[in-house]
Amino acid sequence: MTDEKKKEFTLKITQANRTRIVVLTYELALTYLEEAKNAEGYEDFVRGIQHAKCCTDQLRSVLDYSQEIALYLYRIYNYISLLLDKAIIRHNAGILDEAEQLIEKLHDAFDRIADSDTSEPVMRNTETIYSGLTYGRAGVQDNVSMENRGFTV
Fold it and tell me: Rounded to whole angstroms, what are the CA distances from 1 to 9, 52, 70, 153?
């Protein structure tokens, strides 16, 4: 994953509530699966799948088992993990298509839920970032202003 993409995900995570973090985890998994599909060598292929598997493992580890749906999600995450292992063993990127479809469906469902979630961001005291374009002699410039560096007590 490129440094620019990592910064983009980091910024989104710092401003996200709990539901939006789940959506971002799905997006990370999809990004890693895409990298695995486009990998030129076996090591990059495996690395992409392992990163995607870490995302599904994280999603499985934060399930709230007091909710009935958690058991169904647990089974889906286990199946996705099985597909990812199978893709590594067989070195077959075609197997990733089914895992990708499942993750996309879950992503879309949680994205709709996240739109209605008005809870506060999980991370507090993070930087406030203002970004915009300005016109100068050298052409269009992207200006980024950050405030609130550090922790408050």
Answer: 11, 12, 30, 35
Superfamily of domain 3-116: Flagellar protein FliS (1.20.120.340)
Q: Output the pLDDT for position 102.
A: 97
Structure-token match 């269009």, residue found: 140
Q: Return the amino acid letter for 127.
A: E
C-alpha dist (Å) from residue 121 to 11, 13, 76, 118 = 12, 9, 27, 9
Q: Which of 12, 26, 29 is nearest to 121 (CA)?
A: 12
Say what the pTM is: 0.77
Which tens digit of pLDDT belongs to each residue from 44-82? 999 999 999 999 999 999 999 999 999 999 999 999 999
- Structural domain spans, the chain: 3-116
